[in-house]
């Protein structure tokens, strides 16, 4: 069974469970409510062999409600195929479940997503800034962060 | 063998001004501290190695301690998170000291204009010579070093001790 056939079999199972799953640019893109992220990621890892967590990031749609997409990518080192999970969270409650219980590498990526977009990952024990510094106000990759706003740590020469 | 008192034909003294003598000596012994943060480092390696060879200008031996160096070469983009480190390195250097902004990011922030990037190192430390370019060509770096040498040679070099 080739990778593409396995992905098609996976798609049929997910669609049978009532999820929206389509192919996009050669990978399987799954849209799901945020409550299901941890459960589906667990299934992907345990049943379908998606053992590599590639990335988690967010997309800001300032005009839209709910405002944020949270996007996950997984890779199967056995079948060499990829899956994308996409969920939405609101500006008032930007919370999703953390995947650190499944993938240790999720810790750092969730920290970055947290500081850049302000998405909170429920269950991640360490959401300190990783690329930014302590005391940085706001979330710089949100569209409403003023693009020329700087927060220098050293006082400028006059 | 000449005895010490015998005239040898070679000159035994010369007259000059103290500032010129000290400036001449200092301009050929610039020990750089390479503060290298980004892709300009490739050009820095190129300019300091065989073909272009900054050793011809006495500026080849990098000292990886700010306390032993004269020239702070800031090579690459400086982020706000890094600015305190750069400032501390500068403050640890002994006088006399000079600063070179190598590449357009160190000069002005370059094409970065966002939350992360310092808009030129001269916002936090004084700079003697700016080398634009992304990255600068080795000829531009050599030109910058020669301009710095001119600046050193023509500068006042204050009293070293109360006798000199």
CATH class of one domain in chain B: Alpha Beta
- Main beta sheet of chain B: strand number and arrangement? 4 strands, parallel
Mean of the pLDDT scores of chain B? Answer: 87
- Outline the biggest β-sheet of chain A: 5 strands, mixed
What is the total tally of β strands of chain A? Answer: 7
Description:
The complex is a heterodimer of chains A (158) and B (164). Chain A is an alpha/beta fold and 158 residues long. Chain A has one domain (3-122): Beta Polymerase, domain 2, CATH 3.30.460.80. In chain A, 23% of the residues lie in helices and 27% in strands. In chain A, strand 6, helix 3 (106-117) and strand 7 form a beta-alpha-beta unit. The mean pLDDT of chain A is 89. Chain B is built from 5 helices and 4 strands, in the order H-E-H-E-H-E-H-E-H. In chain B, strand 1 (32-36), helix 2 and strand 2 (71-75) form a beta-alpha-beta unit. The mean pLDDT of chain B is 87. Classes of the chains: A alpha/beta (158), B alpha/beta (164). At the A-B interface, loops of A face helix 3 of B.
In summary, what is this structure?
Chain A is α/β, with parallel strands linked by helices and 158 residues long.
Q: What key phrases describe this protein's structure?
A:
heterodimer; A: 158 residues; alpha/beta; Beta Polymerase, domain 2; five-stranded mixed sheet; two-stranded parallel ribbon; 7 strands; elongated; B: 164 residues; Rossmann fold; four-stranded parallel sheet; 5 helices; 4 strands; 30% helix
Helix and strand layout, with pairings?
The complex is a heterodimer of chains A (158) and B (164).
Chain A: H1 3-16, E1 20-24, E2 27-31, H2 37-46, E3 52-60, E4 68-76, E5 81-89, E6 95-97, H3 106-117, E7 120-122
Parallel strand pairs in A: 2-5, 6-7
Antiparallel strand pairs in A: 1-2, 3-4, 4-5
Chain B: H1 18-27, E1 32-36, H2 40-48, E2 71-75, H3 83-92, E3 98-102, H4 104-108, E4 129-131, H5 138-153
Parallel strand pairs in B: 1-2, 2-3, 3-4
């Amino acid at each position: 069974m080739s990778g593409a056939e396995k992905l098609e079999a996976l798609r049929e199972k997910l669609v049978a469970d009532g999820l929206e799953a389509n192919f996009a640019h050669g990978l399987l893109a799954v849209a799901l409510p945020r409550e299901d992220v941890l459960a589906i990621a667990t299934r992907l890892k345990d049943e379908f062999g998606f053992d590599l967590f590639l990335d988690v990031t967010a997309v800001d749609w300032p005009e839209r409600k709910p405002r944020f997409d949270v996007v996950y990518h997984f890779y199967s080192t056995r079948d060499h195929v990829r899956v994308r999970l996409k969920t939405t969270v609101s500006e008032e409650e930007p919370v999703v479940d953390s995947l650190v219980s499944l993938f240790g590498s999720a810790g750092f990526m969730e920290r970055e997503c947290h500081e850049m977009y302000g998405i909170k990952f429920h269950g991640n024990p360490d959401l300190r800034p990783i690329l930014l510094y302590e005391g940085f106000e706001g979330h710089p990759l949100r569209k409403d962060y003023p693009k020329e706003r700087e927060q220098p740590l050293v006082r400028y020469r006059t | 063998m000449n005895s010490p008192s015998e005239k040898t034909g070679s000159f035994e003294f010369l007259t000059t001004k103290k500032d010129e003598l000290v400036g001449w000596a200092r301009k050929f012994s610039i020990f750089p501290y390479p503060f290298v943060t980004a892709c300009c480092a490739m050009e820095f390696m190129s300019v300091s190695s065989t073909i272009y060879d900054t050793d011809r200008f006495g500026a080849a031996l990098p000292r990886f301690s700010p306390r032993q160096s004269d020239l702070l070469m800031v090579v690459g983009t400086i982020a706000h998170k890094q600015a305190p480190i750069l400032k501390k390195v500068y403050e640890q250097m002994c006088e006399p000291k000079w600063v070179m902004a190598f590449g357009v990011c160190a000069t002005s922030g370059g094409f970065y204009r966002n939350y992360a990037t310092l808009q030129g190192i001269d916002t936090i430390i004084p700079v003697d010579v700016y080398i634009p370019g992304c990255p600068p060509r080795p000829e531009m770096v050599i030109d910058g070093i020669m301009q710095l040498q001119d600046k050193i040679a023509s500068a006042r070099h204050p009293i070293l001790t109360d006798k000199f």
